[in-house]
Structure of Male sterility protein:
Amino acid sequence: MANHMMMTGFPGFISQRLYRALAADDATTRFTFLIHPSQMEKASRLTSSDPRVTLLVGDITKLDLGVSSEDIKALSETVTHFFHLAAIYDLAVPKDLAYQVNVIGTENVNQFLKSLSSLDRYIYFSTAYVSGDRTGRVLENELDEGQGFKNYYEETKFEAEKRVVALEGVPTTIIRPGVVVGDSASGETIKFDGPYFMLRFLDKLPLGPVPYLGKGNEVLNIVPVDFIIRATVYLAKSEQAVGKALHLTDSSPYPAREIYRMFCRELLAKKPTYNFPKSIAQILLKFSTVRRYLELGPETIAYIYHPSVYDSTEATRILSEGGIHCPDLVDYVPNMVRFFREHRGDSTMKVALQ
């Protein structure tokens, strides 16, 4: 029987690329995308030339995902793989909204899966940052270690992953990416957030000496989206990945200070020359005028400058059998910066700061 893959979160950045990779991997694969009504026009435009794709209007925050009983019956006999990517990824998301989408939405997906009698694999997209405020080495087989959280994004993804782990009778693979950036070859991304806030900040400082924001000795685990896609396609079919949470992270990450220096050298052709205390920067960024001018939020500093190391031993072992590894950041920083430079004036790619 040909694979029938169902996916939430389309047409998001990762889900678009994942669809294309899965379609290229097997020409017989069928797809059903659960599409929020607000995204139907875009989803239709992106898939109109592919007769293997069915677009199904739905909403993960509703019981049965807002899908009719007739559609559920049809899907129950054919869906072999379910990819759950729909979530709110904003670090500054309000608690109620994050809980409704990330936690309740995942609970509804989990219940929906129980109706799929032909399901071979449930691939759930979590994040390495379910570790919250833990410091030191974080293992793939660890989840609830009594940690606190730096924001509601982390907290609700943690709560959602706990519910996926508790799901019985479903072959599950949990994907925990690090900080995902654009394509390592083209630099392409759809949003300048996360590490791109460093570039947005540096772009405001083209003249005079450039400061470091704190010591920045903590490692920042950046991974390009093409690595995430290649790894996910492989893991979705690997029996070794069943029942496991896997860190899709860089096994040799760079300190945040070094990444900042790379960006500065590539964007401004110079190196930072002095330290500006991180504690003072976080105080200044509480003022909205400062945040908007520098295009940098305090939650981003807390996210970037946090001393956690994400062990990826098991993911690396499984992926190495498929010849898949994370590219070295130093090799694709020029592509990231080039794409940023070419598109920095595009307001649709910037996350608005309040």
About this structure: The mean pLDDT is 93. The chain has 13 helices and 15 strands.
